[in-house]
Write a structure and sequence with these properties.
Number of helices: 11
Radius of gyration: 17 Å
Structural class: mainly alpha
Shape: globular
C-alpha cells in the first residue's frame, strides 16, 4: 500500500518536473553509467556502428523492447495497490541474468536515495517499479514520469555508444532529438497499457544481453 510520506512542505511545493528531472538526471546515484543494456555486445558484433544504426537499434528498444516494457511496468506500479505482485512480474520478465542485475541494482540504489532524501518508504524494488511507486507517493504526473524515464534510459545508452563506437557528442544529441517523438509516443501509449498486455519483441537485444556475460574485454556490466 502507498502511504503519506511526510515530505517537508517546501519540498512538496517544488515543481513536479524538477523532481522528476532530478531523479532521472545522470547525477542521480543509481549507477546507470555502468550498464549498456546489451549495447556493448551489439557494437562488438558490428550490429551498431554509427549514428544511423544506433538510432534504429534504440527505436526498437523504445518501441518493442525493454524501454516500452519498463514504462508499462512503471505505470502499473504507479496505479497498483499490489506493488509486490507488480515487482515480481517485472523480475520474471527480465530476459537475462544481466538485465535483471541491471534493473535490480539500479532499483535498490534509487529506493535508498529517495528514502534518505524524500522520506519515501520503499525498498528492494526493481528500477521501473521503484520509480513508479515513488512518483505516485509524491503525486508526480505519470505521463511525464514515463517520458523522462525513457529519455534517461535512451540518453544513457547514447552516452555508452559515444564511448564505444565511438560517436561524437553532437551526433549523439542529434540521435536523441530524432528519438524524442518516439519516446513521447511510446510513453503515452505505455501508460494506457494494462499489465496483462505487456510484451516485447526485441530478440537481438535480448540475446546480446545474454552473450555479453562472456564478452572480453568489456567496459560495462551489462
Amino acid at each position: 500500500a502507498h502511504m503519506g510520506m511526510g515530505v517537508p512542505t517546501r519540498t512538496a511545493m517544488t515543481d513536479p518536473l524538477l523532481t522528476l528531472a532530478q531523479w532521472m538526471s545522470p547525477a542521480f546515484p543509481v549507477g546507470a553509467f555502468a550498464y549498456s543494456h546489451g549495447l556493448e555486445q551489439c557494437i562488438a558484433d558490428g550490429l551498431v556502428h554509427d549514428a544511423e544504426s544506433l538510432t534504429l537499434w534504440l527505436t526498437d528498444i523504445i518501441e518493442t523492447g525493454g524501454g516500452q516494457s519498463d514504462v508499462v511496468l512503471l505505470a502499473a506500479a504507479y496505479q497498483s495497490e499490489e506493488l509486490e505482485r507488480v515487482d515480481a512480474t517485472a523480475r520474471a520478465l527480465c530476459p537475462s541474468t544481466e538485465r535483471l542485475l541491471e534493473s535490480d541494482l539500479q532499483g535498490s540504489a534509487f529506493c535508498k536515495t529517495v528514502q534518505s532524501v524524500w522520506n519515501i518508504p520503499i525498498d528492494g524494488l526493481i528500477y521501473p517499479i521503484a520509480v513508479g511507486a515513488a512518483a505516485r507517493a509524491m503525486d508526480l504526473p505519470l505521463e511525464k514520469a514515463a517520458s523522462l524515464y525513457l529519455q534517461a534510459l535512451v540518453s544513457n545508452l547514447i552516452s555508452a555508444a559515444i564511448r564505444l563506437i565511438p560517436l561524437g557528442q553532437t551526433e549523439g544529441q542529434r540521435v536523441l532529438l530524432q528519438l524524442t517523438p518516439v519516446i513521447e509516443e511510446t510513453a503515452l501509449a505505455a501508460i494506457k497499457t494494462s499489465l496483462d498486455r505487456i510484451g516485447s519483441a526485441s530478440f537481438a537485444a535480448d540475446v546480446a544481453s545474454m552473450r555479453h556475460e562472456t564478452l572480453q574485454p568489456r567496459i560495462f556490466r551489462t
